[in-house]
Each structure stands twice: as C-alpha cells, then as structure tokens.
Design goal:
Blueprint: E1 2-9, H1 16-27, E2 33-40, H2 47-57, E3 61-66, H3 72-82, E4 87-90, H4 102-110, E5 115-123, H5 128-144, E6 153-160, H6 161-168, H7 177-184, E7 188-195, H8 207-221, H9 224-252, H10 260-293, E8 300-304, H11 310-315
Parallel strand pairs: 1-2, 1-4, 2-3, 5-7
Antiparallel strand pairs: 3-8, 4-6, 5-6
Helix pairs in contact: 6-7, 9-10
Length: 316
C-alpha cells in the first residue's frame, strides 16, 4: 500500500519538525512506502526552509511551494493533485487533527469504505465564540445546501484513489473540498475524535477568513440564497400592498397617515431587502465571472521530490 499524506502549510515553520515526526510514527505500522506532501502556501516566514530541513531527515517528505498565497483550499488542491498514493490522507499542519487516527481510518477503509472523515465531538483550546460560530455554520450549511454535508467535519479524512480522482475532476475555482467529497458520493463513514488545541502559533483562520469561507461554501453547494432573495422580494411586495390598503383606508376616513417615522422605516426596510437581493445575486454573478476567466488555480514555483509531479508539470 502506497500512502500519500497532504498537509497545506501557511507560516508553520515552528510546527514542521513535530508534524513530520508524528506523521512518520503514524505511518510506519501501516505502509511500506509513503509520501508526506507539505504544501507551502506562500508563507512569509521560514516554512519552506523548515520543509527543506525536514526532507533531509525524512526522505518521504515532498515539498511543494506555490508561487503566491492562494488560500487553504487551493493549497490543499495542489497537494492532492501532486499525490500519487493509492490512499490519500489530508490534515492541517497545526496538529489539531491527530495523525495517530490513521490506523483506525485504514482499518475502516479495509472494510470497503471509500472515504473515512473525522468528526469532531469536542473542540479543545477554542473560544466560546469560535465553537458557537462553528456549530451554527455546519447546521446552517446543511439547512441551505442541496447536498447533505456531514456536520462538524473539516478536511481531515482518508480517501481512496477512485474518490480523489472524481473530486479532482471537478473544475470549479472557489473550492470547498469537504463539500465536494460529500457531493461525489461513494461509501463514506465518520470517525469521532476530540480536536486538540494548536501545537504552536496562532490560527490562520481569523473571523474575516471564516466568513468568506462560509459564503463560498453556501454559494458553492446551494441555490437557496437566490430563492431566499426571491421570497424576500415577494414578502416586501405583500407588505407594500398592506400599507397601500392602510393608506387608502386612512384617506377614505379623512385621516392623515401618521408621522414621518413610519415612512423612513418603510423606505429603510425596502432598501435593505433590495440591497440584500442585489448582494446575493452579486455573489453568484461574481462566481460566474471568476469561472469564465478559467485561470489556473495556482502555480508551483519549486518542488522537492525525485520525480516532478503532475502539479509541477502543469505549472511549468
């Protein structure tokens, strides 16, 4: 069994040695040959140098350096395209997702499953706000999505080659990897675990990035926001009709419609509905614009491996 492990890295120089050591220890009992693909997503610290040092100590390490920062999902895609294994494991560099679960995941895949994904039952070391927003995100996403996406799951998973090839065949630019695997189907099962605090450093997903990620997820896998905009438009028309009846009734009884406050409130409400509708439409139109340009997702500037992968050949 040849195993590939894909890890996107962004300013993670301090954790690279521990990451490689734990991955190597987890791999040894299960695979005769493997590769640990570390993707440097345009880091501004010494992450690339740390990857080079790790390769000197562990020949299984493969380094892929992107030409610029493209975001977590694109970096993960670059690593998946560079992977050559029969089974592929993906996780984040912060080691909040334990690589020691590899053995259990491999055993479950031996039972005939195509995808084994990690499902968090507890999130240690995270603020109440982060836990609450994550809880709300996954449930709102499932309510809005046209495809059932497992709750409380990230990109931490083990997949086989058939499933990975199906996902890599999807051409969209704004990528939501966990949703793409859910859409692909195949036999999938979850494994529960407790998510540990970060080994070192700070999160690379501040609130603004999380919000952008949530919008990408919603618009990638659902047209319900567009339907919501339509329903809001009909609701505003209904309220307008009721207000017109009220005004006509007041005129018949020779009563003046009271106060400017109600007028301002009505204008503000309808303006808000219009702007929300335009914003939702703008998200989808912007996505169409980006897709129409058909630019490459990324370029690889350097790669550390004996034989250049398809990712490097494609960027050359």
């Amino acid at each position: 069994m040849y195993l590939s492990i894909v890890v996107p890295c962004m300013n993670e120089e301090d954790v690279i040695p521990t990451l490689v050591a734990r991955l190597s220890a987890a791999i040894t009992p299960w695979c005769d040959s493997s590769e640990i693909i570390l993707v440097d997503d345009g880091s501004t610290d010494g992450t690339w140098e740390a990857i080079q040092d790790a390769r000197l100590l562990c020949p299984d390490v493969v380094g892929v350096r992107l030409s610029a920062n493209r975001g977590h999902q694109i970096a993960l895609t670059a690593g998946l395209e560079a992977a050559t294994g029969e089974r592929i494991m993906m996780l984040d560099a912060d080691l909040q997702d334990p690589p020691e679960l590899l053995g259990d995941m491999m055993s479950m895949m031996d039972q005939g499953y195509d995808v084994v994904y990690g499902r968090r039952i507890e999130r240690q070391g995270e603020s109440l706000f982060k836990r609450a927003t994550a809880y709300a995100f996954y449930r709102l996403l499932n309510a809005m999505s046209d495809v059932p996406i497992p709750r409380d799951t990230g990109d931490f998973r083990l997949v086989n080659r058939t499933t990975l090839d199906a996902v890599l065949a999807m051409p969209e630019r704004a990528r939501f990897i966990r949703g793409m695997f859910a859409w692909a189907g195949f036999r999938q099962i979850g494994i529960e675990y407790t998510r540990a605090p970060r080994e070192v450093g700070e999160t690379k997903y501040p609130f603004r990035a999380m919000l952008r990620f949530a919008v990408d997820a919603m618009t990638s896998f659902s047209t319900k926001p567009l339907k919501l905009a339509t329903r809001l438009s009909f609701a505003s028309l209904g309220i307008t009709a009721l207000m017109a009846v009220y005004v006509a009734y007041s005129l018949i009884l020779y009563q003046t419609a009271p106060g400017w406050a109600s007028v301002v409130l009505a204008i503000s409400f309808f303006s808000g509905v219009q702007l929300l509708t335009l914003g939702i439409m703008g998200e989808y139109i912007g996505r169409l614009y980006v897709e129409a340009k058909n630019r490459p997702l990324y370029f690889v500037s350097e790669e550390l491996r004996d034989t250049p992968s398809a990712a490097l050949r494609k960027s050359a």
